[in-house]
Structures are given as structure tokens and as C-alpha cells.
Amino acid sequence: MLFLIGLGLGDCKDITIKGLEAVRRSTKVYLEAYTSILIDGHGDLESYYGKPIIQADRSFVEQKCEVMLNEALVEDVSFLVVGDPFGATTHSDLILRAKQMGVDIRVIHNASILNAVGCCGLQLYAFGETVSVVFWNDNWKPTSYYDKIASNRRAGLHTLCLLDIKIKEQSWENLARDRKIFEPPRFMKVFEAAQQLIDILNIRLAGGAREDTLAYSADTLAVGLARVGTDSQQIAAGSLLQLTNSEVLLGKPLHSLVLPAEKLHPLEWDMLAMYAIDKSWFNANKNKYVKN
Amino acid sequence: MLFLIGLGLGDCKDITIKGLEAVRRSTKVYLEAYTSILIDGHGDLESYYGKPIIQADRSFVEQKCEVMLNEALVEDVSFLVVGDPFGATTHSDLILRAKQMGVDIRVIHNASILNAVGCCGLQLYAFGETVSVVFWNDNWKPTSYYDKIASNRRAGLHTLCLLDIKIKEQSWENLARDRKIFEPPRFMKVFEAAQQLIDILNIRLAGGAREDTLAYSADTLAVGLARVGTDSQQIAAGSLLQLTNSEVLLGKPLHSLVLPAEKLHPLEWDMLAMYAIDKSWFNANKNKYVKN
């Protein structure tokens, strides 16, 4: 049996009872270690579970998962995923291969950012497509998520922006020379994402877009979230421009950003107001955002 | 302290370690008992947690929650919610009142249908607005969710349809006479929801809509899900028409229905094919649905 187990968002105690029981009865425990990070380290998990954990990086899951699946044919094996097993990465590939090989799979769900984002007070059912904001470099400045945000806003929906995580990345030089030297991990923060969203407006304007057709402005309401589901969770609501100054306020990763719909339910507004960066901005903008 | 604790979707062992620790240290434990149901009964929870659980129905949460909040000012109190505390119902009202009263709140997240629906293989980030399908009666046949499905499909997004739950409903007669006699609980199943989605097409056609402008047809791919996150979970994929015959296949509540986007990622299609009601229908329709 292969147990696909969500760890939730915080520390080692965010696993479910069912998940912990599966881990404890498994002879091998793998941890998916490339699409997210643990707030708790690897060592904490090992001591809490009382058994060694094997890090499964992208190349393991994509190329060598047959090793794990063969084990799961004859014994109980756990594959741990931060958040929910069907979060940002679906692991469909792994499940389909398991099915082909005749491996029984059991999924143990948990919270992921895709539902825990509701903690800011915006209604989950009113979220549209989720987008990813990636680090720009000199040669690559993708802006395609702007159109998805625009589409969500036209439909009256909120947009969850997942912010880029770079783990085990190689520089071009190291990649070219096939040297297994990795860059330090990088996690995009809300202040960077907010700046990028503003930069896109300027790119669109420079490309001839009319200001009144843009999906949002630097003064549009946005919500920054840091370390959702942990004891040190922080939420900050204000204009995108205000969020470009949220580096100290929001602190360490992981961060996410939400661009709410143009009109909010009064309770959504009141919830966000609890997290206002600037109460006077909130008071001044209430009539603009709240549905009558 | 008020702990707002998600129970997840299955049985009493789907609570997290952190959640269970909070329950065990709480002097009072309330269970929100009106927006969802537990697959396990109330009694199982009480024996597992080793303490009595107070049922909190809608009128309690909306009108009498000050009693609970006053307790939480001086002791640890747990408020349990099936799924995640910020699932279909946000409990924003409760949180705002707690804030006004100076009650500390700690949220312990868990899986909800809004993220666990990913188990069918459709990518979570490609879901649009979530809709609710409610029981029709002779006087009230709301169809407004059709437009939301149409909007999601135009944007290339999947739609999760939450199916109606009627708990502690009074008949008009009992309501009029203020008799606290409640109808038996009712849970909409996928076969009923699929029929209603087809009925709406006929209503639109009768209203003059052109067939080629409709958002979907009786032959459109849909996915029925039953008891997601439990040991008896069932998934059935096929046309809406096929799903009108899923009563035996999917069995007991809770059910949900997904109307996928018009075009799917090949892996999404392969995952759904694992749950095909009719393999030949899947084979015949692959080219229509899969992105090149």
C-alpha cells in the first residue's frame, strides 16, 4: 500500500491522526521536497515520527519513483506532501504509474494554501483560477497571469497568487557544465510580487494599453499572507503600493498574495479590515469595495 | 482561547494532532452541526475525544454564540467544524464577534471538499467559482448557478458544484405554527444534480435560447464524487446523462459534482478515465476533450 499523506501547512503536529498512524506503520517514509517547504525542518519530522525520512526531489519523483512503487507492492510505504497531496502539484503522474503497476493507493487529505487562504476572510467559493507569480530575470519576464487576474476580476472573483519557490536550482554555468552545485533557495515575498504586479501595469501602458482598461491599479486592494496555518501567521491588507513595503511586516516565507474581486461582501470587507496596514485607507475606500 | 478546528472529511481520526491536543485541553467542545454532516456520528467523536460535545445548530451560532465566546474569554473552548473552518461557511461573523469581545482565536486548518476535490485528478488551480445546487420545489427552481458554470467554462475552468443539504428544516405548516418539528435530513445526490443540470438546459431552450449557445449538453463530461476523503469514497466520470443513473454506483451522501472545463490536460483526462462509468464513451470522446 502507498499512503499519499498531506502534512498540512505548519509543523509536524499538523498531520492527521490517520496520517500519523499510516506513517508509523510504514516501513519506508518519503518526503516530497520540491514543490513546497516545511516550516518545520526535516529533522523535527524524523524525531516526531520516530523513523528516518527519505527526501524525494523532483528527479526522484519524475524518474525513480518505480523504486518506491515496487516497495509499495509488498509493504506499507508513506509519501508525504506538504499541504494536501492534490495541492499545487497533483501527483497524477505518480498515481497513474501506481495504478499501472497494481499498487494500492490511499490518500490522506489535509489543508493546503488553496483552502486555508480562507483565513483572511474572503469567501473560498468566490475564488477564480489560481495563478503563479514567478521570479523575473533579465531575459524572461512572463506576464501571462495578468490576463487570468483580469478574467477573474471581470467575473467578480478573487485571485490567489502562489509565489515562486526556487529550490535546488542550478546556475546556467553549473547546468551547462553538469555540476551538481545548487543556488541557495529563494522564496518570493509579497513585497516583490506586489511590485511585479505594478510593473506589469507599466509594461501594459508602455505597450499602448489605456489606463482605464487595466485590470487593477497600484491603489487596488490586495492581501498579503505569510506562513498561513502556522503560529506566526501574518496577514496584511491594503493597496498593492502599500504591500510593496510589507517586507518587515510579513517577514519570513512562505508568502501568498490575493487580489480580491472588485466588489466584496460586507463581512469579507470587515474581516480584511482586521488586517489593514493603514486603517485610514480602509475607511476611505469602503464605499468603493463593498457591495450594497 | 477559542480554537476553531477543522475535522476534515472522514471520521474522528481525520482531525490533526494539533487539533486533538486543543480538544483535549478544552473545557467545552462545540460541534457546528448545520452546514455539513459527519460521516462518523456524534457519539464516535465523543468517545474518541473522551469528552462531551455540544451540538451548535444554526440558531446557536447566529444568535447565542456569545455564551461560547464568554467562556472562551476565561478558558479554552473548541469549536469543531467538519472540513476546514473556512470552507463553505466562513464563520466570519463568529470571528468578528470574538474580536469585538477580545477573545483570542486560533484556527487549526484541515482538508475541505474545496481542496480534496483534487482527488479526481482535475487540477485545483484550474477551478473557477464554486456553485451550489439546491433542491427545487414546486414554487422555487433557481437556475442562477447555470450562468456561473457558463462563465467558468468560457474561461476554461472547472466548476465544483456543492449539492444541497437540508438539516433541521421545518415544513411550511410547522414553521407557520412555530412547531419545532423538523423534516428528515435530505442530501442531494449526484444523480439528482445531474438531472437538474439537464432540466435547466430544457428550461433555457424553452425560453428561446439557441442550442449551440448553451454552456453544456446532456452529453458533456461530468464527475460525480461521493464521500470524498473516507474509506468508501467513490468517483464516477461520464456524461451528465450517464450520471443521472449513478444512484446505486455512488451510494450514500455526501455527494459533489464537478463540471470540468471544455478542454483538459492529458493527465487530467487519464486520471478521470480511471473512474469512467463507460470506457467506450471515454475512448470515443478523448479527442474532443484533451488539449493538444
From TrEMBL, chains A, B:
Pathway as given in its UniProt record: Protein modification; peptidyl-diphthamide biosynthesis
E.C. number: 2.1.1.314
GO molecular function: diphthine methyl ester synthase activity
Assigned keywords, A-Z: Methyltransferase, S-adenosyl-L-methionine, Transferase
GO BP, sorted A to Z: methylation; protein histidyl modification to diphthamide
Segments forming domain Tetrapyrrole methylase: 1-177
Reactions the enzyme catalyzes: 2-[(3S)-amino-3-carboxypropyl]-L-histidyl-[translation elongation factor 2] + 4 S-adenosyl-L-methionine = diphthine methyl ester-[translation elongation factor 2] + 4 S-adenosyl-L-homocysteine + 3 H(+)
InterPro entries (UniProt xref): 4pyrrol_Mease, 4pyrrol_Methylase_sf, 4pyrrole_Mease_sub1, 4pyrrole_Mease_sub2, Dphthn_synthase
Biological function: S-adenosyl-L-methionine-dependent methyltransferase that catalyzes four methylations of the modified target histidine residue in translation elongation factor 2 (EF-2), to form an intermediate called diphthine methyl ester. The four successive methylation reactions represent the second step of diphthamide biosynthesis.
Family per similarity comment: Belongs to the diphthine synthase family.
Record's protein name: diphthine methyl ester synthase
